[in-house]
Amino acid sequence: MDKILCIVGPTASGKTSLSVALAQAFGAEIVSFDSMQVYRGMDIGTAKPTMDERGGIRHHMFDVAEPNESFSVSRYVAMADACVQDILSRGKPVILVGGTGLYVDSLVAGREFAPFPSTGVRERLNERVKAEGIEPIYRELQEIDPEAAAVIHPANTKRVLRALEVYLETGTTISEHNRRSKLQRPKYEPLWIGLDYANRQTLYDRIDLRVEMMFEQGLEQEVRTLLESGIAPDATSMQAIGYKELTQYLAGEGTLAQAKESIQLASRHYAKRQRTWFYRNEKVNWITIPDGADFDDIFYQARRIATTFDN
Questions:
Q1: pLDDT tens digit string along 131-183?
Q2: What predicted TM-score, i.e. pTM, was given to this entire model?
């Protein structure tokens, strides 16, 4: 199995800087696993590294989708895996970095997803929803795939339709597809490095400061530009932290100061969820950063952990 280095941790923990330094040390290329950095035109609010911050290192999986598109984990895995294979074929190491745990776990595991249905299947189901509502379609799912229906809320139209369309297209339930996927052997051999702060408040202060900097860099104008270009406020991309709150502000809900405070709060909550996800992985080698830590100390710790990656 091919080895890949995975750098994980909560937002604002310093993953980008560390990944670039390690990539420079190893001659590696970086593949992002951030579910919102895939969108073009969403740079400031997603903390997408600038060209200077990328340090001359080639980055992959930025700007691969339009903001009016839905972008799924299955699409990410297909595209990111192609990037990884291309990098490895050129004899270069791969570093994965980001904060979307589902994306990196699915990529490393080589998870295969149920195929997307044909346009006709989806259109027919959408027409049924308009004519009948979601309730009878959910009852149909209960009969066809009770296992999936048991974990999907009846009001979650998107997931109900996805589960039913997989069966209509393939003749196999989505539950069975998922079961088969979990039985697969991992595709890559990951070496996990995690970054986190010993003092949780220090991380939260960094998050608050980052949001302040985003506003100084023009986050409000970035959101305005997206909306003026025709991106719908309810688009998946516009549900990202920062974009959702500013969209509401621009629609007349609350003040700019309230929007900023909401973004900071949502970002702190997101960091908590990221911690919960990544700490479940017992293979992560955590670097706990004390207050006042020097970046060189963090880098050398990571460099020692990554020694096997260089072999």
A1: 999 999 999 999 999 999 998 998 888 889 988 988 888 888 988 877 776 65
A2: 0.83
| Phi, psi (rounded to 5 degrees) for 287 | -105, 110
Tokens at residue 79, please? 């595209």
Domains identified in the chain and CATH numbers:
2-112+184-310 (3.40.50.300), 119-182 (1.10.20.140)
- Per-residue pLDDT band for 119 (boundaries 50, 70, 90) equals low
Angle of helix 135-144 relative to helix 157-170, nearest 10 degrees, comes to: 50
**pLDDT(310) > 70:** no
Nearest to 62 by CA among 78, 40, 82, 85: 40
Sign, Cα dihedral of 217, 221, 210, 56: negative
